[in-house]
TrEMBL record:
<dbReference type="InterPro" id="IPR050678">
    <property type="entry name" value="DNA_Partitioning_ATPase"/>
</dbReference>
<dbReference type="Pfam" id="PF13614">
    <property type="entry name" value="AAA_31"/>
</dbReference>
<dbReference type="InterPro" id="IPR027417">
    <property type="entry name" value="P-loop_NTPase"/>
</dbReference>
<dbReference type="InterPro" id="IPR025669">
    <property type="entry name" value="AAA_dom"/>
</dbReference>
<protein>
    <submittedName>
        <fullName>ParA family protein</fullName>
    </submittedName>
</protein>
<feature type="domain" description="AAA">
    <location>
        <begin position="10"/>
        <end position="105"/>
    </location>
</feature>
């Protein structure tokens, strides 16, 4: 949120328990003003570290959380660099059967590896890639995508065996403001998506992301 550049504290911007179903989850919401964040950050000294300085200033409030998850847009801009600099674990989503998404992930990894050098950030922070929008059906496009993936050994080697499948259960659970597990339980249903998410969590634990 753009308010942090204006000096607001973590306590001022954190919304406590916006979903009563999950009292242990707080959020920092955003709005259209986020589009101006890059411009405001660019005027700051050591501009790639603005968020890191804010984090350390608010460490007493933020260290209470087990995990802080940031959802980034595909844009590799100054806002993204601030969040990436502060992150200890980065998961790169790749759209299934989308070669442009695959090439974008490779370009991101190249750019961030270069910028990390200049920012003197030495940790191995890109922990995994994951297929999203996965569809089991095989097509000519999926065959071409699989062939193309072989050219990117580094992305392929860190790719999770689990994936996020394209299905209505995920969308419906989001619209219901419930986890997949709780949504299925509420509707007396079972679905393999729940097991896939659980497998993904276990893989992330093995990679020390969780």
């Amino acid at each position: 949120t753009i308010d942090i550049v204006d000096g607001l504290s973590a306590e001022d911007v954190i919304v406590k328990c916006p979903n009563q179903n999950y009292p242990n989850i707080d959020i920092i919401p955003s709005d259209i003003g986020l589009a101006m964040l890059d411009e405001k950050i660019s005027l700051q000294p050591a501009r790639e570290k603005v968020l890191a300085r804010w984090y350390m200033k608010n460490i007493d409030a933020l260290e209470k959380y087990d995990y802080i998850i940031c959802d980034l847009s595909p844009s590799y801009n100054l806002t993204a660099k601030n969040i990436l600099y502060l992150s200890d674990s980065i998961i790169v989503p790749i759209m299934d059967k989308n070669i442009s998404s695959l090439r974008g992930a490779a370009l991101f990894k190249e750019l961030w590896s270069r910028d990390k050098f200049y920012l003197e950030k030495e940790d191995d922070d890109i922990k995994a890639t994951i297929l999203v929008g996965y569809e089991k059906q095989k097509t000519q496009v999926s065959d071409l995508f699989d062939q193309y993936l072989q050219k990117f050994d580094d992305l392929k080697d860190m790719m999770l065996n689990s994936f996020i499948r394209r299905n209505t259960f995920v969308e419906k659970s989001l619209l219901s403001k419930l986890s997949i597990s709780d949504y299925l339980k509420k509707n007396n249903q079972t679905h393999f998506s729940k097991e896939e998410v659980e497998n993904m969590i276990e893989e992330l634990k093995e990679k020390d992301v969780l």
